[in-house]
Amino acid sequence: MASSEGQLSKLGEAARTFLATRPGLLIAGRNTPAASGARRDVLDPSTGLVVTDVAEGGAADVDAAVAAARATFQSAEWRDMRPLARERLLHRLADLIERDADILAELEVIDTGKILPMARHGDLVIALDSLRYMAGWTTKIEGTTIDPSFSYIPPIRFSARTVRQPVGVVGQIIPWNFPLVMAIWKIAPALAAGCTVVLKPAEDTPLTALYLGRLIAEAGFPAGAVNIVTGGREVGMAIVEHPGIDKIAFTGSTAAGQDIQRRAAATMKRLSLELGGKSPVVILEDCPVPMAVEGAAGAIFFNHGQVCTAGSRLLVHRSIYEDVVQGLAHAANGMVLGEGMDPAGQMGPLISARQRDRVAGYVQGALDQGARLLAGGEAPDRDGFFYRPTVLADGTPSMTIFQEEVFGPVVIAMPFDTEEEALALANDSCFALGASVWTQNLAAANRFAGALRSGNVWINAHNILDPAVPFGGWKMSGYGRELGHSAVELYTEAKSITMPLL
Ligand code: NAD
Protein backbone atom coordinates (compact mmCIF):
# COMPACT_ATOMS: atom_id res chain seq x y z
CA MET A 1 0.00 0.00 0.00
CA ALA A 2 1.67 3.21 -1.19
CA SER A 3 0.30 6.04 0.91
CA SER A 4 1.11 9.71 1.23
CA GLU A 5 -0.23 12.38 3.60
CA GLY A 6 -2.47 14.46 1.30
CA GLN A 7 -5.56 15.45 3.26
CA LEU A 8 -4.93 12.86 5.98
CA SER A 9 -3.25 15.42 8.24
CA LYS A 10 -6.48 17.43 8.24
CA LEU A 11 -8.54 14.57 9.66
CA GLY A 12 -9.16 14.16 13.36
CA GLU A 13 -7.29 11.56 15.39
CA ALA A 14 -10.21 9.09 15.48
CA ALA A 15 -10.73 9.03 11.69
CA ARG A 16 -7.00 8.54 11.16
CA THR A 17 -6.93 5.73 13.70
CA PHE A 18 -9.80 3.99 11.92
CA LEU A 19 -8.00 4.23 8.57
CA ALA A 20 -4.87 2.83 10.18
CA THR A 21 -6.76 -0.32 11.21
CA ARG A 22 -7.03 -1.25 7.49
CA PRO A 23 -10.53 -2.72 7.96
CA GLY A 24 -11.62 -6.18 6.92
CA LEU A 25 -15.07 -7.54 6.09
CA LEU A 26 -17.79 -7.71 8.74
CA ILE A 27 -18.97 -11.29 9.01
CA ALA A 28 -20.89 -12.66 12.00
CA GLY A 29 -19.92 -9.56 13.96
CA ARG A 30 -16.19 -10.03 13.41
CA ASN A 31 -13.66 -7.97 11.47
CA THR A 32 -12.55 -10.66 8.99
CA PRO A 33 -9.96 -10.77 6.19
CA ALA A 34 -11.12 -11.85 2.75
CA ALA A 35 -10.83 -15.62 2.25
CA SER A 36 -8.45 -14.94 -0.63
CA GLY A 37 -6.41 -12.48 1.43
CA ALA A 38 -6.96 -9.85 -1.29
CA ARG A 39 -7.10 -6.14 -0.49
CA ARG A 40 -8.09 -3.03 -2.45
CA ASP A 41 -6.65 0.47 -2.12
CA VAL A 42 -9.00 3.29 -1.11
CA LEU A 43 -8.27 6.60 -2.83
CA ASP A 44 -9.03 10.17 -1.82
CA PRO A 45 -10.64 11.54 -4.99
CA SER A 46 -9.48 15.06 -4.07
CA THR A 47 -5.85 14.06 -4.42
CA GLY A 48 -5.79 10.64 -6.04
CA LEU A 49 -3.69 9.42 -3.09
CA VAL A 50 -4.19 6.12 -1.26
CA VAL A 51 -5.62 6.65 2.25
CA THR A 52 -5.90 3.03 3.36
CA ASP A 53 -6.86 -0.35 1.97
CA VAL A 54 -9.72 -2.69 2.77
CA ALA A 55 -10.43 -6.38 2.31
CA GLU A 56 -11.48 -7.30 -1.22
CA GLY A 57 -14.21 -9.90 -0.82
CA GLY A 58 -15.17 -12.70 -3.18
CA ALA A 59 -17.79 -15.42 -3.60
CA ALA A 60 -16.47 -17.43 -0.62
CA ASP A 61 -16.90 -14.39 1.62
CA VAL A 62 -20.45 -13.92 0.36
CA ASP A 63 -21.13 -17.57 1.29
CA ALA A 64 -19.84 -16.92 4.82
CA ALA A 65 -21.83 -13.69 5.13
CA VAL A 66 -25.05 -15.35 3.94
CA ALA A 67 -24.53 -18.26 6.37
CA ALA A 68 -24.11 -15.78 9.24
CA ALA A 69 -27.15 -13.75 8.17
CA ARG A 70 -29.27 -16.91 7.80
CA ALA A 71 -28.19 -18.28 11.19
CA THR A 72 -29.14 -15.00 12.87
CA PHE A 73 -32.41 -14.77 10.95
CA GLN A 74 -33.37 -18.20 12.28
CA SER A 75 -32.05 -17.66 15.79
CA ALA A 76 -34.50 -17.30 18.64
CA GLU A 77 -32.60 -14.19 19.73
CA TRP A 78 -33.54 -12.33 16.54
CA ARG A 79 -36.74 -14.14 15.50
CA ASP A 80 -38.41 -13.72 18.88
CA MET A 81 -37.10 -10.26 19.64
CA ARG A 82 -39.98 -7.93 20.53
CA PRO A 83 -40.56 -5.10 18.05
CA LEU A 84 -39.85 -2.52 20.73
CA ALA A 85 -36.49 -4.16 21.44
CA ARG A 86 -35.59 -3.89 17.73
CA GLU A 87 -36.66 -0.25 17.80
CA ARG A 88 -34.44 0.37 20.81
CA LEU A 89 -31.46 -1.20 19.03
CA LEU A 90 -31.99 1.02 16.00
CA HIS A 91 -32.18 4.13 18.21
CA ARG A 92 -29.04 3.00 20.05
CA LEU A 93 -27.29 2.79 16.69
CA ALA A 94 -28.54 6.30 15.87
CA ASP A 95 -27.15 7.53 19.21
CA LEU A 96 -23.74 6.06 18.34
CA ILE A 97 -23.82 7.66 14.88
CA GLU A 98 -24.61 10.99 16.57
CA ARG A 99 -21.71 10.46 18.96
CA ASP A 100 -19.32 9.73 16.07
CA ALA A 101 -20.86 12.07 13.49
CA ASP A 102 -17.67 14.10 13.06
CA ILE A 103 -15.63 10.94 12.43
CA LEU A 104 -18.14 9.57 9.93
CA ALA A 105 -18.30 12.92 8.14
CA GLU A 106 -14.53 13.03 7.78
CA LEU A 107 -14.42 9.46 6.49
CA GLU A 108 -17.11 10.37 3.96
CA VAL A 109 -15.07 13.37 2.83
CA ILE A 110 -11.86 11.40 2.37
CA ASP A 111 -13.70 8.59 0.58
CA THR A 112 -16.04 10.55 -1.74
CA GLY A 113 -14.41 13.98 -2.10
CA LYS A 114 -17.53 15.83 -0.96
CA ILE A 115 -16.91 18.95 1.09
CA LEU A 116 -17.01 18.64 4.88
CA PRO A 117 -20.03 20.91 5.59
CA MET A 118 -22.09 18.89 3.16
CA ALA A 119 -21.02 15.57 4.66
CA ARG A 120 -21.53 16.76 8.25
CA HIS A 121 -24.74 18.78 7.83
CA GLY A 122 -26.20 16.96 4.82
CA ASP A 123 -25.33 13.27 4.67
CA LEU A 124 -25.09 12.71 8.43
CA VAL A 125 -28.39 14.47 9.12
CA ILE A 126 -30.22 12.58 6.39
CA ALA A 127 -28.77 9.28 7.59
CA LEU A 128 -29.79 9.94 11.18
CA ASP A 129 -33.29 11.14 10.30
CA SER A 130 -33.79 8.07 8.12
CA LEU A 131 -32.58 5.68 10.80
CA ARG A 132 -34.75 7.16 13.54
CA TYR A 133 -37.78 7.31 11.24
CA MET A 134 -37.37 3.64 10.28
CA ALA A 135 -36.87 2.63 13.93
CA GLY A 136 -40.46 3.72 14.53
CA TRP A 137 -41.83 1.26 11.97
CA THR A 138 -40.84 -1.82 13.99
CA THR A 139 -43.98 -1.49 16.11
CA LYS A 140 -46.32 -0.48 13.28
CA ILE A 141 -46.16 -3.42 10.90
CA GLU A 142 -49.80 -4.42 10.62
CA GLY A 143 -52.15 -6.70 8.72
CA THR A 144 -55.89 -6.79 8.14
CA THR A 145 -58.85 -8.89 9.26
CA ILE A 146 -61.30 -10.23 6.70
CA ASP A 147 -64.77 -11.73 6.90
CA PRO A 148 -64.72 -14.26 4.04
CA SER A 149 -67.88 -15.84 2.57
CA PHE A 150 -66.74 -19.32 1.51
CA SER A 151 -70.18 -19.84 0.01
CA TYR A 152 -69.21 -23.33 -1.25
CA ILE A 153 -68.80 -24.46 2.41
CA PRO A 154 -72.25 -23.35 3.63
CA PRO A 155 -72.38 -24.64 7.20
CA ILE A 156 -69.14 -23.10 8.41
CA ARG A 157 -68.19 -19.45 8.87
CA PHE A 158 -64.51 -18.57 8.66
CA SER A 159 -62.35 -15.73 9.70
CA ALA A 160 -59.20 -14.62 7.88
CA ARG A 161 -56.39 -12.23 8.64
CA THR A 162 -53.22 -11.09 6.95
CA VAL A 163 -49.87 -10.61 8.60
CA ARG A 164 -46.62 -9.20 7.24
CA GLN A 165 -43.48 -11.17 8.01
CA PRO A 166 -39.82 -10.40 7.29
CA VAL A 167 -38.81 -11.42 3.77
CA GLY A 168 -35.67 -13.13 5.14
CA VAL A 169 -31.99 -12.56 4.33
CA VAL A 170 -31.59 -9.53 2.09
CA GLY A 171 -28.69 -8.63 -0.17
CA GLN A 172 -28.16 -4.90 -0.49
CA ILE A 173 -25.87 -3.35 -3.09
CA ILE A 174 -25.17 0.39 -2.99
CA PRO A 175 -23.38 3.07 -5.04
CA TRP A 176 -20.71 5.63 -4.22
CA ASN A 177 -22.50 8.96 -4.27
CA PHE A 178 -23.99 8.89 -0.73
CA PRO A 179 -22.33 5.86 0.88
CA LEU A 180 -23.55 6.28 4.47
CA VAL A 181 -27.02 7.50 3.53
CA MET A 182 -27.45 4.60 1.10
CA ALA A 183 -26.28 2.10 3.72
CA ILE A 184 -28.84 3.44 6.22
CA TRP A 185 -31.63 3.59 3.64
CA LYS A 186 -30.99 -0.07 3.02
CA ILE A 187 -30.26 -1.60 6.43
CA ALA A 188 -32.68 0.45 8.58
CA PRO A 189 -35.98 -0.71 7.02
CA ALA A 190 -34.62 -4.24 6.63
CA LEU A 191 -33.75 -4.49 10.34
CA ALA A 192 -36.97 -2.72 11.34
CA ALA A 193 -38.89 -5.41 9.47
CA GLY A 194 -36.90 -8.22 11.14
CA CYS A 195 -34.71 -9.19 8.18
CA THR A 196 -30.97 -9.80 8.32
CA VAL A 197 -28.56 -8.25 5.86
CA VAL A 198 -25.58 -8.82 3.58
CA LEU A 199 -24.50 -5.35 2.44
CA LYS A 200 -22.04 -4.57 -0.35
CA PRO A 201 -20.76 -0.99 -0.43
CA ALA A 202 -19.45 0.40 -3.72
CA GLU A 203 -15.84 -0.54 -4.40
CA ASP A 204 -14.81 3.14 -4.42
CA THR A 205 -16.43 4.04 -1.08
CA PRO A 206 -16.26 1.29 1.57
CA LEU A 207 -15.22 3.37 4.60
CA THR A 208 -18.36 4.69 6.29
CA ALA A 209 -20.19 1.38 5.87
CA LEU A 210 -17.31 -0.43 7.57
CA TYR A 211 -17.25 2.12 10.39
CA LEU A 212 -21.02 1.73 10.66
CA GLY A 213 -20.47 -2.02 10.97
CA ARG A 214 -18.45 -1.41 14.12
CA LEU A 215 -21.20 0.79 15.55
CA ILE A 216 -23.78 -1.90 14.75
CA ALA A 217 -21.76 -4.36 16.84
CA GLU A 218 -21.38 -1.79 19.63
CA ALA A 219 -25.12 -1.08 19.62
CA GLY A 220 -25.72 -4.72 20.56
CA PHE A 221 -27.32 -6.19 17.44
CA PRO A 222 -26.90 -9.96 17.31
CA ALA A 223 -23.73 -10.92 15.44
CA GLY A 224 -24.78 -11.72 11.88
CA ALA A 225 -27.74 -9.31 11.75
CA VAL A 226 -25.68 -7.14 9.39
CA ASN A 227 -22.74 -8.48 7.40
CA ILE A 228 -20.65 -6.28 5.13
CA VAL A 229 -18.69 -7.65 2.18
CA THR A 230 -16.60 -5.02 0.42
CA GLY A 231 -15.48 -5.66 -3.12
CA GLY A 232 -16.40 -5.16 -6.74
CA ARG A 233 -19.04 -6.25 -9.20
CA GLU A 234 -18.18 -9.95 -8.65
CA VAL A 235 -19.27 -9.66 -5.02
CA GLY A 236 -22.52 -8.03 -6.17
CA MET A 237 -23.12 -10.81 -8.66
CA ALA A 238 -22.43 -13.50 -6.05
CA ILE A 239 -24.99 -11.84 -3.76
CA VAL A 240 -27.59 -11.62 -6.55
CA GLU A 241 -27.17 -15.28 -7.50
CA HIS A 242 -26.90 -16.70 -3.98
CA PRO A 243 -29.69 -19.19 -3.22
CA GLY A 244 -29.56 -18.25 0.47
CA ILE A 245 -30.68 -14.68 -0.18
CA ASP A 246 -34.39 -13.89 -0.45
CA LYS A 247 -34.38 -10.32 -1.70
CA ILE A 248 -32.08 -7.84 -3.42
CA ALA A 249 -32.25 -4.08 -2.88
CA PHE A 250 -30.05 -2.24 -5.35
CA THR A 251 -29.18 1.38 -6.08
CA GLY A 252 -26.97 2.17 -9.05
CA SER A 253 -26.90 2.25 -12.81
CA THR A 254 -29.73 1.03 -15.01
CA ALA A 255 -27.30 -1.32 -16.82
CA ALA A 256 -26.37 -3.05 -13.55
CA GLY A 257 -30.06 -3.12 -12.57
CA GLN A 258 -30.92 -4.93 -15.79
CA ASP A 259 -28.15 -7.46 -15.20
CA ILE A 260 -29.40 -8.01 -11.64
CA GLN A 261 -32.95 -8.53 -12.86
CA ARG A 262 -31.77 -11.23 -15.28
CA ARG A 263 -29.58 -13.01 -12.72
CA ALA A 264 -32.18 -12.85 -9.96
CA ALA A 265 -34.75 -14.65 -12.09
CA ALA A 266 -33.19 -18.06 -11.42
CA THR A 267 -33.99 -17.88 -7.70
CA MET A 268 -37.09 -15.65 -8.06
CA LYS A 269 -35.66 -13.13 -5.62
CA ARG A 270 -37.71 -10.15 -4.59
CA LEU A 271 -36.20 -7.03 -6.14
CA SER A 272 -36.25 -3.31 -5.54
CA LEU A 273 -34.21 -1.28 -8.00
CA GLU A 274 -33.40 2.41 -7.69
CA LEU A 275 -31.66 3.20 -10.95
CA GLY A 276 -30.55 6.04 -13.16
CA GLY A 277 -32.26 9.29 -14.05
CA LYS A 278 -32.27 12.21 -16.46
CA SER A 279 -34.45 14.53 -14.46
CA PRO A 280 -36.01 17.59 -16.10
CA VAL A 281 -36.11 21.01 -14.43
CA VAL A 282 -38.93 22.98 -16.06
CA ILE A 283 -38.84 26.77 -15.67
CA LEU A 284 -42.13 28.41 -16.62
CA GLU A 285 -42.48 31.90 -18.06
CA ASP A 286 -43.46 33.60 -14.81
CA CYS A 287 -40.61 32.23 -12.67
CA PRO A 288 -38.32 35.08 -11.49
CA VAL A 289 -34.91 34.65 -13.14
CA PRO A 290 -32.87 34.70 -9.88
CA MET A 291 -35.08 31.95 -8.46
CA ALA A 292 -34.73 29.94 -11.68
CA VAL A 293 -30.95 30.28 -11.66
CA GLU A 294 -30.60 29.32 -8.03
CA GLY A 295 -33.00 26.40 -8.42
CA ALA A 296 -31.34 25.09 -11.57
CA ALA A 297 -27.85 25.41 -10.04
CA GLY A 298 -28.85 23.47 -6.93
CA ALA A 299 -30.62 20.85 -9.02
CA ILE A 300 -27.54 19.99 -11.08
CA PHE A 301 -24.50 20.92 -8.99
CA PHE A 302 -25.58 19.35 -5.67
CA ASN A 303 -23.07 16.57 -4.82
CA HIS A 304 -21.16 17.48 -8.04
CA GLY A 305 -24.08 16.22 -10.10
CA GLN A 306 -23.54 12.69 -8.80
CA VAL A 307 -27.16 12.32 -7.79
CA CYS A 308 -29.68 9.97 -9.37
CA THR A 309 -32.25 12.80 -9.42
CA ALA A 310 -29.78 15.45 -10.66
CA GLY A 311 -31.65 18.09 -12.66
CA SER A 312 -29.59 17.46 -15.77
CA ARG A 313 -32.12 18.61 -18.39
CA LEU A 314 -33.03 22.27 -18.04
CA LEU A 315 -36.14 23.33 -19.97
CA VAL A 316 -36.76 27.09 -19.90
CA HIS A 317 -39.51 29.22 -21.42
CA ARG A 318 -38.02 31.02 -24.41
CA SER A 319 -38.87 34.48 -23.00
CA ILE A 320 -36.36 34.05 -20.15
CA TYR A 321 -34.16 31.28 -21.63
CA GLU A 322 -31.04 33.34 -22.37
CA ASP A 323 -31.19 35.16 -19.02
CA VAL A 324 -31.47 31.88 -17.13
CA VAL A 325 -28.72 30.00 -18.96
CA GLN A 326 -26.36 32.97 -18.75
CA GLY A 327 -27.14 33.33 -15.04
CA LEU A 328 -26.48 29.63 -14.52
CA ALA A 329 -23.18 29.87 -16.42
CA HIS A 330 -22.20 32.80 -14.20
CA ALA A 331 -23.03 30.74 -11.10
CA ALA A 332 -21.04 27.77 -12.45
CA ASN A 333 -18.02 29.91 -13.23
CA GLY A 334 -18.12 31.33 -9.70
CA MET A 335 -18.02 27.96 -7.94
CA VAL A 336 -14.78 27.26 -6.10
CA LEU A 337 -13.45 23.75 -6.59
CA GLY A 338 -11.66 22.42 -3.54
CA GLU A 339 -10.55 19.42 -1.55
CA GLY A 340 -13.18 18.19 0.84
CA MET A 341 -11.35 19.42 3.94
CA ASP A 342 -10.60 22.84 2.39
CA PRO A 343 -12.98 25.37 4.03
CA ALA A 344 -12.96 27.49 0.86
CA GLY A 345 -14.10 24.64 -1.39
CA GLN A 346 -17.68 24.72 -2.66
CA MET A 347 -17.49 21.70 -4.95
CA GLY A 348 -15.29 18.63 -4.68
CA PRO A 349 -14.03 16.19 -7.30
CA LEU A 350 -15.84 13.35 -9.01
CA ILE A 351 -15.45 9.93 -7.50
CA SER A 352 -12.76 8.53 -9.80
CA ALA A 353 -10.61 9.21 -12.84
CA ARG A 354 -12.90 6.83 -14.73
CA GLN A 355 -15.98 8.87 -13.84
CA ARG A 356 -14.26 12.16 -14.69
CA ASP A 357 -13.27 10.77 -18.10
CA ARG A 358 -16.78 9.47 -18.66
CA VAL A 359 -18.21 12.93 -17.91
CA ALA A 360 -15.64 14.58 -20.20
CA GLY A 361 -16.64 12.15 -22.95
CA TYR A 362 -20.31 13.12 -22.65
CA VAL A 363 -19.46 16.82 -22.82
CA GLN A 364 -17.29 16.35 -25.90
CA GLY A 365 -20.06 14.30 -27.49
CA ALA A 366 -22.57 17.09 -26.82
CA LEU A 367 -20.29 19.70 -28.37
CA ASP A 368 -19.78 17.46 -31.40
CA GLN A 369 -23.57 17.21 -31.72
CA GLY A 370 -23.97 21.00 -31.70
CA ALA A 371 -24.50 22.07 -28.07
CA ARG A 372 -23.26 25.54 -27.07
CA LEU A 373 -20.74 25.62 -24.19
CA LEU A 374 -21.43 28.42 -21.68
CA ALA A 375 -19.33 27.32 -18.70
CA GLY A 376 -16.87 24.58 -17.73
CA GLY A 377 -16.29 21.84 -20.25
CA GLU A 378 -12.90 20.81 -18.90
CA ALA A 379 -11.02 19.24 -16.05
CA PRO A 380 -8.89 21.81 -14.20
CA ASP A 381 -5.14 21.39 -14.19
CA ARG A 382 -4.72 19.99 -10.69
CA ASP A 383 -4.44 16.68 -8.83
CA GLY A 384 -7.58 14.73 -8.05
CA PHE A 385 -10.58 13.88 -10.19
CA PHE A 386 -12.10 17.36 -10.57
CA TYR A 387 -14.31 18.50 -13.43
CA ARG A 388 -15.58 22.05 -13.80
CA PRO A 389 -19.31 22.68 -13.42
CA THR A 390 -20.54 22.75 -16.98
CA VAL A 391 -23.47 24.49 -18.66
CA LEU A 392 -24.41 23.45 -22.19
CA ALA A 393 -27.18 25.27 -24.06
CA ASP A 394 -29.27 24.68 -27.17
CA GLY A 395 -29.83 20.98 -26.64
CA THR A 396 -32.13 18.86 -28.74
CA PRO A 397 -33.89 15.65 -27.73
CA SER A 398 -31.83 13.65 -30.21
CA MET A 399 -28.54 14.53 -28.47
CA THR A 400 -27.00 11.72 -26.42
CA ILE A 401 -26.55 14.13 -23.53
CA PHE A 402 -30.28 14.82 -23.49
CA GLN A 403 -31.06 11.10 -23.15
CA GLU A 404 -28.26 9.42 -21.13
CA GLU A 405 -27.29 9.80 -17.50
CA VAL A 406 -23.97 11.67 -17.14
CA PHE A 407 -23.69 11.58 -13.33
CA GLY A 408 -21.55 14.69 -13.13
CA PRO A 409 -21.92 18.50 -12.90
CA VAL A 410 -23.20 18.89 -16.46
CA VAL A 411 -26.53 20.37 -17.53
CA ILE A 412 -28.00 20.58 -21.01
CA ALA A 413 -30.52 23.40 -21.49
CA MET A 414 -33.12 24.00 -24.17
CA PRO A 415 -35.95 26.49 -24.67
CA PHE A 416 -39.67 25.82 -25.12
CA ASP A 417 -42.61 27.96 -26.19
CA THR A 418 -45.70 26.27 -24.78
CA GLU A 419 -46.65 24.18 -21.77
CA GLU A 420 -47.49 21.26 -24.05
CA GLU A 421 -44.03 21.40 -25.59
CA ALA A 422 -42.38 21.58 -22.16
CA LEU A 423 -44.31 18.55 -20.95
CA ALA A 424 -43.52 16.55 -24.06
CA LEU A 425 -39.81 17.36 -23.69
CA ALA A 426 -39.80 16.61 -19.97
CA ASN A 427 -41.43 13.22 -20.55
CA ASP A 428 -39.21 12.38 -23.54
CA SER A 429 -36.90 10.06 -21.62
CA CYS A 430 -36.56 6.38 -20.84
CA PHE A 431 -35.90 7.50 -17.25
CA ALA A 432 -38.52 8.78 -14.82
CA LEU A 433 -37.06 9.34 -11.36
CA GLY A 434 -37.31 13.06 -10.51
CA ALA A 435 -38.72 16.20 -12.11
CA SER A 436 -39.31 19.75 -10.95
CA VAL A 437 -41.42 22.64 -12.14
CA TRP A 438 -40.70 26.24 -11.21
CA THR A 439 -43.55 28.74 -11.26
CA GLN A 440 -45.71 30.99 -9.08
CA ASN A 441 -48.80 29.82 -10.96
CA LEU A 442 -50.52 27.26 -8.77
CA ALA A 443 -52.76 25.92 -11.52
CA ALA A 444 -49.81 25.42 -13.88
CA ALA A 445 -47.78 23.78 -11.10
CA ASN A 446 -50.58 21.33 -10.49
CA ARG A 447 -51.03 20.62 -14.20
CA PHE A 448 -47.34 19.71 -14.43
CA ALA A 449 -47.38 17.72 -11.19
CA GLY A 450 -50.18 15.61 -12.63
CA ALA A 451 -48.78 15.19 -16.13
CA LEU A 452 -45.05 14.65 -15.47
CA ARG A 453 -44.32 10.94 -15.78
CA SER A 454 -41.93 10.55 -12.88
CA GLY A 455 -41.70 8.83 -9.52
CA ASN A 456 -41.01 12.12 -7.72
CA VAL A 457 -42.14 15.62 -8.63
CA TRP A 458 -41.05 18.79 -6.86
CA ILE A 459 -42.66 22.22 -7.19
CA ASN A 460 -40.20 25.12 -6.72
CA ALA A 461 -37.68 22.68 -5.22
CA HIS A 462 -35.45 19.87 -6.45
CA ASN A 463 -33.50 16.98 -4.89
CA ILE A 464 -35.16 17.29 -1.49
CA LEU A 465 -35.90 13.98 0.20
CA ASP A 466 -37.39 13.08 3.54
CA PRO A 467 -37.60 9.63 5.15
CA ALA A 468 -41.41 9.91 5.42
CA VAL A 469 -41.87 10.52 1.68
CA PRO A 470 -41.69 7.46 -0.61
CA PHE A 471 -38.89 7.62 -3.17
CA GLY A 472 -38.33 5.63 -6.35
CA GLY A 473 -38.61 5.56 -10.11
CA TRP A 474 -40.86 4.72 -13.01
CA LYS A 475 -39.78 3.31 -16.36
CA MET A 476 -36.02 2.54 -16.62
CA SER A 477 -35.42 4.32 -13.31
CA GLY A 478 -36.48 1.13 -11.56
CA TYR A 479 -39.26 0.03 -9.22
CA GLY A 480 -40.04 -0.29 -5.54
CA ARG A 481 -40.34 2.63 -3.16
CA GLU A 482 -37.75 3.27 -0.49
CA LEU A 483 -38.60 5.47 2.50
CA GLY A 484 -42.04 6.06 3.93
CA HIS A 485 -44.46 3.27 4.65
CA SER A 486 -43.52 1.54 1.40
CA ALA A 487 -40.02 0.75 2.68
CA VAL A 488 -41.49 -1.64 5.24
CA GLU A 489 -43.52 -3.34 2.52
CA LEU A 490 -40.31 -3.90 0.56
CA TYR A 491 -38.88 -5.96 3.40
CA THR A 492 -41.94 -7.98 4.38
CA GLU A 493 -44.06 -10.65 2.72
CA ALA A 494 -47.83 -10.86 3.20
CA LYS A 495 -49.33 -14.06 4.57
CA SER A 496 -53.05 -14.89 4.74
CA ILE A 497 -54.26 -17.02 7.65
CA THR A 498 -57.75 -18.55 7.55
CA MET A 499 -59.58 -20.51 10.26
CA PRO A 500 -63.12 -21.65 11.03
CA LEU A 501 -65.10 -19.71 13.62
CA LEU A 502 -66.06 -22.47 16.02
P1 NAD B 1 -22.84 0.62 -10.97
O1 NAD B 1 -24.29 0.57 -11.09
O2 NAD B 1 -22.04 -0.22 -11.91
O3 NAD B 1 -22.41 0.19 -9.47
C1 NAD B 1 -23.23 0.38 -8.34
C2 NAD B 1 -23.04 -0.78 -7.39
O4 NAD B 1 -23.45 -2.00 -8.01
C3 NAD B 1 -21.60 -1.02 -6.97
O5 NAD B 1 -21.61 -1.48 -5.64
C4 NAD B 1 -21.14 -2.12 -7.92
O6 NAD B 1 -20.08 -2.88 -7.42
C5 NAD B 1 -22.39 -2.95 -8.05
N1 NAD B 1 -22.57 -3.67 -9.31
C6 NAD B 1 -22.22 -3.27 -10.55
N2 NAD B 1 -22.62 -4.16 -11.46
C7 NAD B 1 -23.24 -5.16 -10.80
C8 NAD B 1 -23.89 -6.36 -11.20
N3 NAD B 1 -23.97 -6.71 -12.47
N4 NAD B 1 -24.44 -7.16 -10.25
C9 NAD B 1 -24.38 -6.80 -8.96
N5 NAD B 1 -23.77 -5.68 -8.52
C10 NAD B 1 -23.21 -4.85 -9.43
O7 NAD B 1 -22.36 2.11 -11.04
P2 NAD B 1 -20.89 2.64 -11.41
O8 NAD B 1 -20.16 1.80 -12.40
O9 NAD B 1 -20.22 2.88 -10.14
O10 NAD B 1 -21.29 3.99 -12.13
C11 NAD B 1 -21.63 3.97 -13.50
C12 NAD B 1 -22.82 4.84 -13.76
O11 NAD B 1 -23.93 4.37 -13.04
C13 NAD B 1 -22.68 6.28 -13.30
O12 NAD B 1 -21.98 7.06 -14.19
C14 NAD B 1 -24.11 6.69 -13.18
O13 NAD B 1 -24.63 7.05 -14.42
C15 NAD B 1 -24.77 5.43 -12.71
N6 NAD B 1 -25.01 5.45 -11.24
C16 NAD B 1 -26.25 5.74 -10.83
C17 NAD B 1 -26.50 5.78 -9.47
C18 NAD B 1 -27.85 6.10 -8.96
O14 NAD B 1 -28.02 6.35 -7.78
N7 NAD B 1 -28.85 6.08 -9.79
C19 NAD B 1 -25.49 5.55 -8.55
C20 NAD B 1 -24.21 5.24 -9.02
C21 NAD B 1 -23.99 5.20 -10.38
From TrEMBL:
Keyword Oxidoreductase listed? The answer is: yes
Molecular function terms, GO-annotated: oxidoreductase activity, acting on the aldehyde or oxo group of donors, NAD or NADP as acceptor
Q: Where in this chain does the record put each Aldehyde dehydrogenase domain?
A: 38-497
**What are the TM regions of this chain, as residue ranges?**
none
- Would you say which domain of life the source belongs to? Bacteria
**Which InterPro entries would you find in this protein's record?**
Ald_DH/histidinol_DH, Ald_DH_C, Ald_DH_CS_CYS, Ald_DH_CS_GLU, Ald_DH_N, Aldehyde_DH_dom
Q: Which UniProt keywords apply?
A: Oxidoreductase, Plasmid
* Enzyme Commission number: 1.2.99.3
Keyword Oxidoreductase (UniProt) = yes
PROSITE patterns found in the cross-reference section: ALDEHYDE_DEHYDR_CYS, ALDEHYDE_DEHYDR_GLU
Q: Where is the active site?
A: E274
PANTHER family, from UniProt?
ALDEHYDE DEHYDROGENASE-RELATED
Per the similarity annotation, which family is this? Belongs to the aldehyde dehydrogenase family.
Protein name from the UniProt record: Aldehyde dehydrogenase (Acceptor)
Organism for this UniProt entry: Novosphingobium aromaticivorans (strain ATCC 700278 / DSM 12444 / CCUG 56034 / CIP 105152 / NBRC 16084 / F199)
